[in-house]
Amino acid sequence: MSTKTTEPAEVRNTKQRRAVTAELHRLEDFISTQDLHRRLQDQGESVSLATTYRILQSMAELGQVDVLRTAEGEAIYRRCEAQHHHHHLVCRSCGATVELEAPDIEAWAENTARRHGYTDVDHTVEISGICEQCTARLEAEDTPVSEDRGATLPGGGSPEAAQRPSSSPSTSRPGRGSSGPTR
């Protein structure tokens, strides 16, 4: 979200803008322009893809939507819960997002810019990681259960396997990668 305080030009409240805004209010998660356009078309709204892009860009500039970038660089949008400057903590696995207040980051950004002679400073901070629910799910997927006894040891091995000599330790972890939020 932008920290700029310049007054935006008046925005026309067109039928297309109302349709985009209404659809964003029905959604909980981030959505790409293409997916939003598809949903609007499915509802019989006559909004072109180019108009959908322009409306979302305008809404982003006005702070009415949050914008994130996927790992592929695609912009995804969500109605903005907070009406003031804030940052995001985003799960790279499921796209869950937490809006953050960060006064220390605000002060750091202003001081850093001032030290270098910059004014009219704008910044965006997005912290990404794996949320608690996805971490638990991934850890559960990585913990095999012994078929005959149902027991596991720390690190995922069975008691039987712990008694057998190992030829070489395995350090790879399957399936941990993600391309980021795709909603």
Oligomer: single chain
| Widest sheet: strand ordering | 1-3-2
How helix-rich are the residues, as a percent range? 25-40%
CATH superfamily of the largest domain: Winged helix-like DNA-binding domain superfamily/Winged helix DNA-binding domain
Short description:
This protein is of the alpha+beta class. The chain has helices spanning 15-26, 33-42, 49-61, 103-115, 132-141, 159-163, and strands at 31-32, 65-69, 75-79, 87-91, 97-100, 126-129.
Structural summary, described in words:
Helix content is 34%, strand content 14%. The chain has 183 residues and is an alpha+beta fold. It folds into 2 domains: 11-80, Orthogonal Bundle (Arc Repressor Mutant, subunit A), CATH 1.10.10.10; 84-148, Ferric-uptake regulator, C-terminal dimerisarion domain (Dna Ligase, domain 1). A 3-stranded antiparallel β-sheet has the order 1-3-2. The protein has a 3-stranded mixed β-sheet with strand order 5-4-6, with no helix packed on it. A hairpin with a 5-residue loop joins strand 4 and strand 5. The longest helix is centred in the first third of the chain and has 13 residues, at 49-61.
